[in-house]
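Researcher: We're teaching a course module on how sequence relates to structure. For the next exercise, students receive a sequence and then see the predicted structure as tokens, so they can try to spot secondary structure elements on their own. Here is the exercise chain.
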Amino acid sequence: MFRFAARTAAVAVACLLATAVAGADDTTLNVKVGDKFPAVALTAAQIDKVKKDAKTVSIADLKGKTVVVFFYPKALTGGCTVESCGFRDLMKDKDFPKDVVVLGASGDDMKLQQQFIDKNELPMALLCDTEQKLIKELGILGKAGGTTPKRVTFVVDKEGKIAKIYDKVTPASHPKEVIEFVKTLK
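Model: And here is the predicted structure for the students to work with:
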């Protein structure tokens, strides 16, 4: 009888631990359309493009503007360069929507983000989520125990709520797809 009770208790504890681990999965999307975008303050290369004289920026600082936050795995790599330059080129267009802020984001440090900006003449601020705080809160970590985010884009409305999530991204065509959606927002 004692063995059965001990075994039952062990199974219960194992189930609880498995549930806790599953709940803390940083690789599974934790937000949905309509949710508030997490207000995690991060440093950013070219932060003055979005917030003057600041050390950090968060989505809460940009209330009243539509914000596109595109996450990429690693600065200065092929797909990430194609996607970032796609946004760069669209931002130069005279028909680019007013009051739209575009932010790139990755787990890269300030030095690498700045090199990425300099090499590709990127006009947007690039968030440096080196501790993966925002990445983990969103649930977009590339793999358990990893340090790079998945390639995911969030469109955040003027109230700070997620209006659209793109989790299947083709770097070459994605920027245009996002901006076309942004143009439909009021």
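Model: If you want an answer key for the exercise: Residues 8-23 have pLDDT under 50 and may be disordered. The longest helix spans residues 2-23.
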